[in-house]
Every structure is written in structure tokens, then in C-alpha cells.
């Protein structure tokens, strides 16, 4: 008969990795759309991934609760399970944010869009948040507190870049005849920027869960508690 680690934790780990893979696929699709792709099959994949991620989140949360209730794990096993529980929530949030970004980017590919004026800025902050989420996930699986701390520090850089890019939206001048949908475009771009910034926040949350997993330190909202 297997132990908790050999059964429940192994299953949780495999399910979690599958959920991560789908989220990273959403990340890849968003990057492709930022580079100019508007293929309909990409949006079909986005919708399929979103449904599967939602389904996986429900199953993972149920499995985590069952593990705690039925197996009464202790010490390191319980810490790992709680870290999974916290991280699953943020992975699903990232997937939701990417779903919104992908949808808006698909719309912004239309002729006459003002998005090309913001393309380089958008790619720049997207790459920052993308690297953060990838490093946070790597830190989680490797239980690497040093890498997790770097992710938390990088969030300040993303916030500054986000503020700079966001200000350009309000300073942008356009010709109503050449860009009749400019206001709607700018609102969509602002929402994309917001989603990118929120992905960075989720990466920070995952990094904090990684530190909890690696060292048993709960640093969530530490600044607010001082």
C-alpha cells in the first residue's frame, strides 16, 4: 500500500503539471498574437484550453481537500499540499487573464487598429510578466527560494514599466477618420496591460508559495502585517 507521497502527492503533481502545460500554451498563443498571428485555430485552442483548465482546477481542489480530510497528512506533506492549493488558484487566474488577453488581441488584429503603435511596449511588458510566471513555476517545482525571491523583486520592475506604458495610452493622439475605432482599441489595450500586470502579481503569489514550500516561511502580505 503506497504512502501519501506515493499516491496522492504523485497524482496531485501530475495533475498540476498538466494544468501548468495548458496555461503555458495560452501564454504561447498570446505571444503569437502579439507578433501578428490572427489564425482562427489559435482562438479555438484558447477556448478549449480554458475549459480544460477550469475543469482541472475543480478536480485538483477536490483532490487536495480529500487528501487533507481522508489522509490527515503531517509536516512536510501538509505544507506541500497547502502550497499546491494556493498555487492552483493563481494558475487558474493567470489562465483567465490570458484568455482575456487572447480575446482582445484577436479583435485588435483588424484593419485600422491603433494597436501597432503600442505593439513594442505590449511585447516588452508581456515578456516581463511571462518570464516571471515561468520562473515562479520553476521555483515552485525546484523548491528554489532564491529564484522565488528574484521573481518577487522583479514585480516592482514590471509595475514601473506598466505605469509608463499605461500613461502613453492617455497621451496618444489619433485621427478619427483613419482610426474610427481608436477609443475602443485603446480601452482594449488598457485592459491587456492590466491583465499583464496582474499576471505578474500571480507570479509573485506563486513565488511566495514556493518559499513556503521550500522553507516553511509564510511571507504573504508581509508588508501589510508590519
Description:
The chain has helices at residues 5-34, 40-71, 75-108, 119-142, 145-171, 182-215, 222-225. The protein has 226 residues and is mainly α. The protein has a single domain (5-225), classed as Methane Monooxygenase Hydroxylase, Chain G, domain 1. It starts with a helix and ends with a helix.
Put the structure in a nutshell.
The chain has 226 residues and is an all-alpha fold. It contains seven helices and no strands. It has one domain: Up-down Bundle (Methane Monooxygenase Hydroxylase, Chain G, domain 1).
Give the SSE layout.
Layout: H1 5-34, H2 40-71, H3 75-108, H4 119-142, H5 145-171, H6 182-215, H7 222-225
CATH top-level class: Mainly Alpha
Number of domains: 1
Give the overall pLDDT as a whole number: 88
Order of helices and strands: HHHHHHH
Task: Give the helix proportion (percent range).
Answer: over 70%
How much strand content do the residues show?
A: under 5%
CATH topology-level name? Methane Monooxygenase Hydroxylase, Chain G, domain 1
Q: Major sheet, described briefly?
A: none
Low-pLDDT segments, ≥5 res: none
CATH architectural label: Up-down Bundle
Per DSSP, the total helix count is: 7
Q: What's the CATH H-level homologous superfamily?
A: Phosphate transport system protein phou homolog 2, domain 2
**Structural class of the secondary elements?**
mainly alpha
Straight-line distance between termini: 46 Å
CA radius of gyration is: 20 Å
Total strand count, please?
0
Q: Looking at the structure, what is the overall shape?
A: elongated
Amino acid at each position: 500500500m503506497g504512502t501519501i507521497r506515493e499516491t496522492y502527492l504523485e497524482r496531485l503533481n501530475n495533475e498540476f503539471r498538466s494544468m501548468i502545460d495548458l496555461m503555458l500554451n495560452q501564454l504561447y498563443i498570446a505571444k503569437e498574437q502579439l507578433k501578428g498571428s490572427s489564425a482562427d485555430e489559435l482562438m479555438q485552442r484558447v477556448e478549449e484550453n480554458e475549459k480544460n483548465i477550469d475543469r482541472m482546477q475543480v478536480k485538483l481542489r477536490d483532490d487536495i481537500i480529500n487528501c487533507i480530510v481522508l489522509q490527515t497528512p503531517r509536516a512536510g506533506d501538509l505544507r506541500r499540499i497547502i502550497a499546491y492549493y494556493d498555487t492552483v488558484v493563481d494558475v487558474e487566474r493567470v489562465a483567465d487573464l490570458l484568455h482575456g488577453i487572447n480575446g482582445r488581441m484577436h479583435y485588435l488584429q483588424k484593419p485600422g487598429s491603433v494597436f501597432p503603435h503600442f505593439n513594442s511596449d505590449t511585447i516588452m511588458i508581456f515578456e516581463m510578466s511571462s518570464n516571471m510566471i515561468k520562473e515562479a513555476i520553476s521555483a515552485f517545482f525546484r523548491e528554489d527560494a532564491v529564484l522565488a525571491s528574484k521573481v518577487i523583486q522583479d514585480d516592482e520592475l514590471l509595475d514601473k514599466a506598466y505605469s509608463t506604458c499605461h500613461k502613453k495610452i492617455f497621451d496618444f493622439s489619433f485621427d478619427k477618420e483613419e482610426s474610427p475605432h481608436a477609443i475602443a482599441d485603446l480601452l482594449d489595450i488598457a485592459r491587456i496591460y492590466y491583465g499583464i500586470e496582474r499576471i505578474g502579481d500571480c507570479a509573485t503569489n506563486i513565488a511566495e508559495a514556493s518559499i513556503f514550500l521550500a522553507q516553511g516561511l509564510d511571507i504573504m502580505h508581509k508588508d501589510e502585517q508590519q
